[in-house]
Amino acid sequence: MIDFLRGKIAAREPEYVVVDVHGVGYRVFCSNPYVFGTKEDIDVTLYTHYHVREDAHLLFGFPTREEQVLFRQLIDVSGIGPKVALGILAGGKPETVVAAIQQENIAFLTKLPGIGKKTAQRLIFDLKEKLGKLTVTDHDLAVSFGLIDPQDEAGAQGVWGEVKQGLLALGYTDAEADRAWARIQPKIKDSDPADVIMKQALQALFQL
Fold first, then answer.
1. Contacts of 2 (CB under 8 A, 6+ apart)
2. Hey, CA dihedral for 121, 65, 3, 199, is it positive or negative?
């Protein structure tokens, strides 16, 4: 099994990236081809799942080990294949999906791509007791459900707002930017300028 790849992004398409690992190009399907960064001259790490079916051998890639674990648990649920699992990861941050399952939030789950009420109920039944190994902090959940505004946490100077706009300009989504802030916020000082915060946010997103 291929558990992770470390190399350079050689190409991006809407559904996958091509990772150059010592001259070998691996096509890796992912929920967002820009989550691994926008530059092509730096090494990135993709945590992968190797999926075998009768007509194809496929690689799926994730920026974090957490997403990899959640993806594997999702596809173990009857009726959820790799494409639906990717859609779930694209439609909601891992900590949000975990919280929704643990709290039996069917209304949230049915808003995810490819998830109807019966599938949402099956997700809860199959996974509610199995998600304890995933790390989900109270802060992450508060950000995920909008109880904390990450931009407000940056202070009166609104530095995070500037950094977030820069990330959006690079192709990241609101959810990805907010997730980066949730991870780096404990390390940020009130006096840190935008370029320092941007560097840390990109490092969190690139998983370097």
1. 26, 48, 50, 59
2. positive
